Amino acid sequence: MTLAIIFMKFLRPLFSKLAPRCFADTARVALTILLFLCLSAKPVFASPDGAVIFENNCAGCHVNGGNIMRRGKNLKLKTLQKNGVDSVEAIAQLVAQGKGLMSAYGDRLSAEEIAVVANYVTEQAKQNWQK
After folding, report:
1. Is residue 97 helix, strand or coil?
2. End-to-end CA distance of the chain, in Å?
3. Domain range for residue 119?
4. Phi, then psi, of 8 in degrees rounded to 5
5. What is the pLDDT of residues 97-127, one digit of tens each?
6. CB under 8 Å to 51, separation ≥6 — which residues?
7. How many Å apart are CA 47 and CA 42, to the nearest integer?
8. How many structural domains is the chain composed of?
9. Cα 103 to Cα 100: distance, rounded to the nearest angstrom
10. Which of 11-25, 32-46, 93-107 holds the top average pLDDT?
11. 86 and 61 within one domain
């Protein structure tokens, strides 16, 4: 259901009921159009954010690119290169399938989310996980 349909079906009648009776019809229409334009400026489903996905799924073990379980398996660039997971594709595969103590997230995250978080990890590793 698009935002326009949602607005027309649910929000407009509610707004009309809540609008004070003293508003002229033109003012009510103008406010309705303004509200519609403001709401439609943002997409209903925004593309996933790598930092948010990382925080929600990875940061429990990999705080600031580290590893609370095994220090030698951190997400620092030098370690990723040493372990052969220094490309976005390799990181995405590791996230999806897991390895050793690392859980697989292929059943919890979509392919798009995995790609986004793999890009995020790569970029953060290049910046030495500086915020």
Report:
1. helix
2. 37
3. 50-126
4. -65, -35
5. 999 889 999 999 999 999 999 999 999 999 9
6. 120
7. 11
8. 2
9. 8
10. 93-107
11. yes
